[in-house]
Amino acid sequence: MTGTRAGGRILSALFVAGLLAGCGPRGDRDGINLEGQSADQIFSSGQAALDQDNPERALRYFDAIEQRYPYTLYARRALIMQAFAYHQAKEYDKAREAAQRFLDYYGGDDDAAYAQYLIALSYYDQIDEVGRDQGLTFQALQSLRTVIERYPDSEYARSATLQFDLAFDHLAAKEMEIGRYYLKRQNYTAAISRFRAVVEQYQTTSQTPEALLRLVESYLALGLTAEAQTAGAILGYNYQASPFYDDAHRLLTGRGLNPDVTGDNWLASIYRQTVRGEWL
After folding, report:
1. 86 contacts 95 by C-beta, under 8 angstroms
2. How many contiguous H segments (helices) and E segments (strands) does the chain have?
3. Which residues of 92-128 are buried (b: 16+ CB within 10 A; e: fewer)?
4. Which of 34, 16, 17 is nearest to 25 (CA)?
5. Strands 37-38 and 23-24: what pairing?
6. pLDDT per residue over 182-224, tens digit each?
7. Which residues form a coiled coil (predicted)?
8. CA 255, 257, 258: angle at the middle one, nearest 5?
9. Residue 216 phi/psi, 5° resolution?
10. Rg of the chain in Å (alpha carbons)
11. Those residues with Cβ within 8 angstroms of residue 280's Cβ, 6 or more apart along the chain or in another chain
12. Can you tell me the distance from the alpha carbon of 15 to that of 24, in angstroms, rounded to the nearest whole number?
């Protein structure tokens, strides 16, 4: 995973640097004996706990470094590792809090990009189900965009770009889910508004071909043949190899119609723009 690689990279940087801090004389309140251990040793114990898939225990070590060795490089690294460990433990709010604290204190550090990416990832990892709160998806998009725009040359920008596209597709999928719900219940006007949103607002996503097919279905059901034909024409022009186009073509020809630009409607305007190489 990206987070694990980053955790290893942070450790490597520490070991290469060879920085040592003073010794902490006491055990901590969680029952972990830290007496006589250096910051380097405590940090290593935290990393070992992560390697053993025990982020809760790792957090005790990283927190101890912050408490015992403040203002050291180890404390700085421990803070970013806290954010990572909270994320591994699926405590996303705390992961964001720790990552934001790192950015507030060490905004110019090399790991600032990773901290920003962890904030975005904490939202992104909660949007795997279409039926969930779409507010998380919007927050993920905003945070991923921040990574892309603020740290374009970082190793996280590429991952953020891919995840941004997937999150954007997720929003379109939600529109499609609602549109299909209305279509199934023959509420064609409401269905059309959802499919139109996909075509106009999420046109670069994988949901667009199906949205155009469902527009053909919905407009045919309402007897609006010009709109249905134009939707079919757009589908044929952009996605002729798609099975959705085959279905749309079959629906139209079954009514004695062809995919063609007819009339002057919002779909006709989109068709003219796509032919000119301008999508909206």
Report:
1. yes
2. 13, 2
3. bebbbbbbebbbeebeebebbbbbbbbbbbbbbebbe
4. 34
5. antiparallel
6. 999 999 999 999 999 999 999 899 999 999 999 999 999 999 9
7. none
8. 140
9. -60, -50
10. 26
11. 200, 203, 270, 273
12. 19
Q: Which structure tokens are listed for 97?
A: 């809090």
Q: What confidence tier does 277 reach under pLDDT thresholds 50, 70, 90?
A: low
Question: In sequence order, which residues have a C-beta less than 8 Å from that of residue 42 and are 6 or more positions away?
Answer: 24, 34, 61, 64, 65, 68, 74
What is the total residue count of the chain?
280
Q: For residue 79, give the nearest of 62, 92, 95, 91 by alpha carbon.
A: 62
What domains are there in the chain, each with its CATH number? 2-123 (1.25.40.10), 173-275 (1.25.40.10)
What is the rounded CA–CA span in Å between residue 16 and residue 6? 15
Rounded Cα distance, 31 and 60, in Å: 10
For the chain, give the mean pLDDT.
Answer: 87
Confidence of residue 18 (pLDDT cuts 50, 70, 90): very low
DSSP secondary structure letter of residue 260: -
**Widest Cα–Cα separation across the chain:** 87
Please, which residues bridge with residue 38 across strands? Answer: 23
